[in-house]
Design goal:
Elements lengths: L5 H7 L15 E9 L17 E7 L5 E4 L1 H6 L5 E2 L2 E2 L2 H31 L2 H13 L4 H13 L16 H8 L3 H6 L6 H9 L8
Antiparallel strand pairs: 1-2, 2-3, 4-5
Helix pairs in contact: 3-4, 4-5
This protein binds zinc ion (ZN).
Length: about 210
């Protein structure tokens, strides 16, 4: 049997029915409750790792005890994750948690932008956010107004999580007429095909 850190044993065994690891982890499951603290300030209640930004709740099916842990512990100790009543595979468990973390990151990013739109009284930013909520995409001008704020206000974000709409001729024209340095602010949000299109429209890629 693989050895488990003493602190992991000390934290989980008193809350479980069984008394051996790793078997005891099968009593537990991820509850789908997760929390984004915005900053890496939390500790895993299982392995006691510090500096976690996201907490995930696991619950023992027999004792109903819960722990707030890091995603790494759920994966490492194979705490079951269920989708539509079925436990998912290791690969899908990782995807499931990554998807949740990306969603939480996007939610907190949009909330930060919304607060900014309020404090700036910026109708352009407000419109960009409304457009994004409706279409899940940004026009080039919206992308610029959002991305320069993300950068200048150091708002945590994943650039590739934003999609830019370049389908229509009008939107392509909008991109063509933009200053290249403005296009560079949202360059990482463009797909490789869109980056090629931007080059064809006269914008050189940013120096990496
Ligand atoms: Zn942990």
């Amino acid at each position: 049997m693989a050895s488990f850190p003493q602190r992991v044993q000390d934290n989980i065994l008193p809350l479980s029915v069984g008394d051996t690891l790793p078997e005891v982890f099968t009593e537990w499951m991820f509850t789908e409750r997760a929390y984004d603290y915005g900053k890496p300030t939390k500790t895993c209640e299982l392995c006691e790792q510090e500096s976690l930004r996201y907490h995930f709740e696991i619950r023992n099916r027999f004792t109903q005890k819960t722990l707030w842990v890091g995603s790494q512990c759920i994966l490492k100790y194979q705490v079951p994750i269920f989708e539509q009543g079925n436990a998912v595979s290791d690969v899908d468990a990782k995807k499931h948690l990554n998807h949740l973390m990306k969603k939480m990151q996007m939610d907190s990013c949009l909330a930060a932008l919304q607060r900014l739109a309020g404090s700036e009284g910026s109708s352009i930013l407000q419109l960009a956010l409304e457009y994004y909520r409706q279409h899940n995409m940004l026009s080039p001008k919206h992308a610029y107004s959002i991305f320069w704020r993300l950068r200048s206000h150091r708002i945590d974000h994943n650039p590739t999580a934003f999609k830019v709409n370049l389908k229509s001729v009008q939107l392509q024209e909008e991109l063509r007429e933009m200053v290249t340095s403005h296009v560079h602010t949202f360059w990482p949000a463009l797909t490789s095909k869109q980056q090629e299109l931007a080059s064809l429209l006269g914008h050189t890629p940013p120096a990496s």
